[in-house]
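User: Show me a protein chain along with its predicted structure.
Assistant: Here is one chain, sequence first, then structure tokens.
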Amino acid sequence: MSLASPQPAVLACTKSEAPTSQRSISSTRLQAPKPTLAAIESLIDEALEASIASATGPSTPPTLAKALRYAVFPGGGRLRPQLCLLVAMVESGGWPPPDAIHAAAAIELLHCASLVHDDLPCFDDADARRGRPSVHRVFGEPIAVLVGDALIVHAFHQAARGPHAGALVKTLSDAAGSLRGLVAGQAWETEAFVSLEEYHRAKTASLFEAAAAMGAIASGSDADRWRELGEALGRAYQAADDIADAIGNAAVIGKPIGQDDAKARPSLVRSLGLEGARRHLATLVEDASASAMRGGGGQLLDQWLERVAARLTELQ
């Protein structure tokens, strides 16, 4: 199944109240007669531009402001916010409501924060991310720590906007936290014994699940029927990442490879072998498609899932 695009009711403030960056999002979408995948991608980037603009200003230390932008732009695949908006579009029957756009920005900001922290010397000590030097290599370790912290704070600021703020913040905190969220996933890498299923669920699937759930919540709909899709996609993404780490090209995937073996981290390839990991990935992609169909799906969501499946296949 595939990606969807957003709708005109993009931001909650009125034209007279909205900052210029937010007004431009509304006017752009109002001119679009029909949602497309390209329109969704543009909407996400515009929402992130507005988010970073609101997180920085004259009182922000200039190096920190520059590093915040560096951590978010240019983006990677933006799969998590795309999933959020696609689910919102299925539920709303058109362009996503304002809450969904803020939620999508929140999810991507939290994801970017996790990448900055993951690359730090105390964790992966990675030189590159998204095909260029990692944040701590460019700006130094102290600024990188603060960039991750600031992005987390601003992610929750974005989630807290609008009438569904309580449920959105709760869902995002679950995805970020120490029970089964990003913090737990990072901490599992320090343990002598790790459940591969729990590790993948916390490290990657948690935020994909939150993305799908938050898209539904922001549309005033039941989130539970979308959680399975998000978790299956997250597990599939992590499976493909494990395979890419074992046999991929660092120049293609934009980050160092061989990290799982070097750091003795849990990995599908280490557990199942390369062919077993590939078979498991194929099963997870099928599970995601089936979950989307049960959720109601739609043409754009179908197209997007096909594109995601192709991308995951390329990684192996």
